[in-house]
Amino acid sequence: MEHFLERYKGHIEGAISGFDRVLFRGTLRTISSRHGIERWLWYQGVLLSNFGAFAEKVSAKLKKHADQIAQKHARPFQYVESPKQSKQEIARKIMEKDKIVKGLICVLSCVEPCRTFKLEKDHRSKMLKLRPTTRQCLHLYFYYIDRDFGLMHVRLQTWLPFTIQVCINGWDWLAQRLDRQGIGYEKRDNCFTHIDDIPRAQRMMDSLIERKWIRWLDILAKRCNPWLDPSNGLDLRGYYWSIREGEYSTDVLFKSPHNLREIYPALLHHAIHHFSAKEVLRFLQRRLNIRSTGELKSELTSRIEGVRIKHWVNENSIKMYDKQGCVLRIETTINNPRRWNIRREVTRKGKQVMAWVPMRKGVSDIRRRVTISRTANERYLEALSVVGEQLPACRVLDPVSKRLLCDGRPYRALRPISPEDSIIFSRNYSRS
Asked: How far apart (Å, rounded) are the C-alpha atoms in residues 280 and 20?
């Protein structure tokens, strides 16, 4: 990335990296599996034949609690007829109309698909059992203006097993911090076009990784789900928090739209024609070998906002697009972190040892997730630094092609274009 920034230093203000949109998911692991919920129902003294009535009862309390929250804060409780409608746009309109600057904006409800359980009869054992299934159920959306994250929402499934989601935006969090520190900036839509002190802003974004996420997420969950209160007798314990989707972006801030417009078409052309499977795998720290499986594809899309190129490696992706005319954004999205490994303490044969194991979705592995995403963005920008390079190849190769004498010891010259040395360079490039 440094080569890209150095090359265009006369046209850019700098670059900043951080979380864009992050979607946390909370799972009640005691009732998220078929065996788990059956044991829990037995503990509650509920027969499987009464599962439907029991589920409706606990679901009704969630709806009543949401209505009470809306009434307590004198905010609207609105039903959204179609799941295709943008709840965020509805919340924004209510926020602007009522001039809400903090706290609860509204509570929305909508019928959407969910993962739950279905009661059926096992023809072999002639007994009732629960089976995981997908069905439609009511979801509750609590929209807030948070003092740290600005506009955000909590989405709660009202049917068992009460899965919950919390959606935040890292750039909104940075805007709140910059306001408190008195640092000037210009923000349009979901990106910064100017920041007075970029290095300081970057340190703020880096500090977000250290936030005590679980404690904060638990507070939000208890606010929306009354069944988490032990006094209600359901003994649901707490949510296990994971990152369902994490977008980590690197924004290069250009001084003017003209500067970005001059080079962006060439960057797109280079990315679509020269970033082959080998390069895309290298960006995302994956290897191309006989064990490589899955789908890899690139797509160029023209949108109202501009032109975007996106590369997928199985469920994960990296993309480049321009925002607000003067911001070049490289963004890595990790949907399946198990494609990468993390070194942590695990139990092996009854002993605690350090080992490389698949990365988890849990928030405890957020640092490793950030490291992978950030280095992917940097590799992408570094690969783009050669676009439009006018320096003759001889100016680059001649210095390394001369014999070197250092401390009285001779070192042979490199021959990058020779068959022998080119193989070595190719191997090192693929491992980097």
From this structure: 21
Tell me how far CA of residue 268 lies from CA of 37, 191, 321, 389, 407, in angstroms.
Answer: 51, 20, 9, 15, 46
Its pTM stands at 0.85
**Residue from 137, 161, 164 nearest 51 by CA:** 161
Contact yes or no for 173/149 (Cβ under 8 A)? yes
- How far, in Å, CA of 86 to CA of 73, rounded? 23
Rounded-to-integer distance, Cα 62 and Cα 221, Å? 12
Q: What is the dihedral angle through the alpha carbons of 189, 191, 193, 195, rounded to the nearest 10 degrees? A: 120
Instruction: For 226-248, write each residue's pLDDT tens digit.
Output: 999 988 888 888 999 999 999 99
Structural Rg of the chain based on CA atoms: 26
CA angle at residue 239 from 54 to 243, to 5 degrees?
Answer: 125
Neighbours of 37 (CB within 10 A): 21
Q: In whole angstroms, how far apart are CA 244 and each of 5, 25, 53, 132, 154?
A: 32, 6, 31, 20, 14
The domain spans of the chain are 397-431
Q: Which of 305, 19, 252 is nearest to 152 (CA)?
A: 19
Question: Strand 327-334 and strand 341-348: pairing?
Answer: unpaired
Q: What is the DSSP string of 109-131?
A: EEEEEEEEEEEEEETTTTEEEEE
Distance of CA 283 to the CA centre of its chain: 17
Q: Which residues contact 120 (CB under 8 A, 6 or more apart)?
A: 128, 129, 130, 131
- Tokens 């969090």, located at residue: 173
Q: What is the pLDDT of residues 51-108, one digit of tens each?
A: 999 999 999 999 999 999 999 999 999 999 999 999 999 999 999 999 999 999 999 9
d(CA 306, CA 304): 6
**pLDDT tens column, 395-411:** 556 676 778 788 888 88
Cα–Cα distance between 61 and 68 in angstroms, integer? 10
